[in-house]
Amino acid sequence: MIERIDALRAEGERALSGATTAADLEAARVRFLGRKSELTQILRGLKDLDPDARARAGASANETRVLLETLLAEAEARVRAGSAPEIARDVTLPGRRPPVGHRHLIQSVILEIQQIFHGLGFSVAEGPDVEDDRHSFGALNMPVGHPARAETDTFYLRPDVLLRPHTSSVQIRVMEATQPPVRIICPGRAYRNEAVDATHFYEFHQIEGLYVDEDVSMADLKGTLERFFKELFGPKTEIRFAPSFYPFVEPGAVVDVRCFFCSGKGCSVCGPLSGGWLEVLGAGMVHPNVFRAVGYDPRRWTGFAFGGGIERIAMLRYGVPDIRLFYESDVRFLRQF
Ligand SMILES: [Zn+2]
């Protein structure tokens, strides 16, 4: 009797755990737990056994019954979950558009600047982010020990290998590889060990320009930049030059744009002390020592160069208050542009 109960328990477990449809389940229920099932018959027949056998068979049969009932409940839940009715589909609804990204604001500003300079006959040049000392400093009239080297806290990988602190290294590489005339802009990343705050980050983008030919003058520089800023900020944009020092140009100038938010009256963007001017670029006439370093004859060739930060231009133009926003990849910020 006990052996028969054990066999029924094993068969019942197999049938219930293997059931995948409601019909399977119902068949298993009838066979193992139904009123006419063998187990029920055994339970009913217990009263005819002698007391000792009744106790042992009764305990075993009841245990089996409880176990199979538990398995049945579990199997019912499993089959119900697996056969949830399909949600009605309306095939005439318009499809869901997959999310499509767009250019990062920094890339859009770079492309816009490139397009303006394409119109002025400049082509785009690129160079490596990991540079050597000569292209970053030496050939730019900053020999070892020059105090201007200390102004940019450079990331050195080895004593003569570094992350470029400006994109001026690209100008050197282009001049080394080609003869004048040269008319290029160099957009790209630059790296400096800055104390990070709302206007400083350890990585940023610059765009530089270089024009080398015979008889290039400061007037060409001014005309080119005026044209550029009128295209970028609007036809009423005014610019001004103020003398400044950069080792690789002589003379050098800092280029300001009249604040395009307040037209120079003074506002939170240009600040109370600026007189309504925003500093946007450094520029000047290429220093003869730079030409000598790349093998150009400074008596024959003259040229101008300029450079500035893309983030600064983007922040001014779009009213972005913190440079770190460009690097946080927060889609709530990126989607606005
Ligand atoms: Zn202003």
Q: Low-confidence runs (pLDDT<50, min 5 residues)?
A: none
Structural class: alpha+beta
User: What is the overall number of helices?
Assistant: 11
How would you state the average pLDDT, rounded?
89
Q: How far apart, in Å, are the first and last alpha carbons? A: 81 Å
Oligomeric status = single chain
**Ligands, deduplicated:** zinc ion
Q: Give the strand order, joined by hyphens, for the main sheet.
A: 1-5-6-10-9-8-7
Radius of gyration: 40 Å
Approximate shape = elongated
Q: How is the main sheet built?
A: 7 strands, mixed
| Residues in β-strands, percent | 15-25%
Total number of strands: 10
Q: Would you list the SSEs in sequence order as H and E? A: HHHHHEEHEEHEEHEEEHEHH
What is shown here, in short?
The protein is α+β, with helices and mostly antiparallel strands and 337 residues long.
Tell me what you see in this structure:
It contains 11 helices and 10 strands. Strands 1-5-6-10-9-8-7 form a 7-stranded mixed β-sheet, sandwiched between helices. Strands 2-4-3 form a 3-stranded antiparallel β-sheet. α1 runs parallel beside α4, α2 packs antiparallel against α4 and α5 packs across α10. By secondary structure, it is of the alpha+beta class. The mean pLDDT is 89. The chain is elongated and about 125 Å long. The site of zinc ion has 8 residues, from loops.
